Amino acid sequence: MKLVLRPALLLVAAVLFLGARQEASVVDKIIDEGRNRSEVMAHLDHLTNGIGPRLTSSDRLTRAGAWARHQFESWGLKSRLEQWGTYPVGFNRGPWSGSMVSPDEPELKNLTFVTMSWTPGTNGPVEGAAVMGPATEEELTAVEPNLKGAWVLSPGVSTGRELNEKILAAYDKAGIAGLIRKGGATLLLTGGNGRIAWDKLPKRVNITMLSKQYDRIKDLIGEKKEVRLRFDIKNEFVKGPIPLYNVIAEIPGTEKPEEMVIVGGHLDSWDGATGTTDNGTGSATTLEAARLLMKAGAKPKRTIRFMLWSGEEQGLLGSLAYIRKHPEENDRISAVLVHDGGTNYVSGILATSPMVPIFEKVFEPCMKLNADLPFKITERAGLPLGIGSDHDGYLRAGVPGFFWSQAGKANYQHTHHTQFDTFDAAIPEYQQHTSMVVAIGALGIANLDALLPREGLVVARPGGGGARRGSPRMLGVNTEEDGVTISEIVEGTAAQRGGLKEGDKILKVGGKDVTDNESLRAAIRDADHKSVVRVKRKDKEMDVNVTFDRTMGFESEDDGLTVTNVSENSPAAKAGLKAGDKILKFDGKDVKDSEALRAAMRDGPKKATMRVLRAGKESDLEVEFER
Question: Does the structural domain 554-624 have CATH classification 2.30.42.10?
Answer without folding.
Answer: yes
